[in-house]
Specification:
Elements lengths: L2 E6 L5 E5 L18 E3 L22 H10 L5 H4 L27
Antiparallel strand pairs: 1-2, 1-3
Length: 107
C-alpha cells in the first residue's frame, strides 16, 4: 500500500497517509478540520533493502565474509587431490622411544 502526501490549503499543514490505492483521497485536514486538503504528486520512494540479504551472497556481515574466505580453498582442487593428507614421515620415527637409555654397542 502506498503512502500519499497531502497539504491543507487553509493552514498549510503537510502530512502523509498510508492508504490503499482504491481508497478515496482524504479531504478533511486533521489539524484545522477544514475541507481544503489536496493530494500532492510525488516522485515516489526508492527501494531500500535491509536485512540478512536477499541472495546468498548479498548484504552479508563482515564476519560472515571473512569466515567464507577462510573456508574457501586457497589452491586449485585438482592439484590438492594429488597431495597426501597425512604429514610427511620424520626421521625421528626410527629412533628409540626412550632417548635416555643409550643403545649398547656390540663388540
Amino acid at each position: 500500500m502506498p503512502t500519499y502526501e497531502y497539504v491543507c490549503g487553509n493552514c498549510h499543514h503537510t502530512f502523509e497517509e498510508f492508504q490503499s490505492i482504491k481508497a478515496a483521497p482524504i479531504t478533511i485536514c486533521p489539524k484545522c478540520k477544514k475541507k481544503k486538503v489536496k493530494r500532492l504528486i510525488s516522485g515516489g520512494a526508492g527501494f531500500l533493502f535491509k536485512g540478512s540479504g536477499f541472495y546468498i551472497t548479498d548484504y552479508r556481515s563482515d564476519t560472515y565474509k571473512s569466515a567464507a574466505k577462510n573456508d574457501s580453498p586457497k589452491t586449485d582442487p585438482a592439484k590438492t587431490e594429488t597431495k597426501s593428507e597425512s604429514p610427511p614421515p620424520t626421521t625421528s620415527a626410527a629412533a628409540p622411544s626412550s632417548p635416555s637409555t643409550p643403545a649398547k654397542k656390540a663388540k
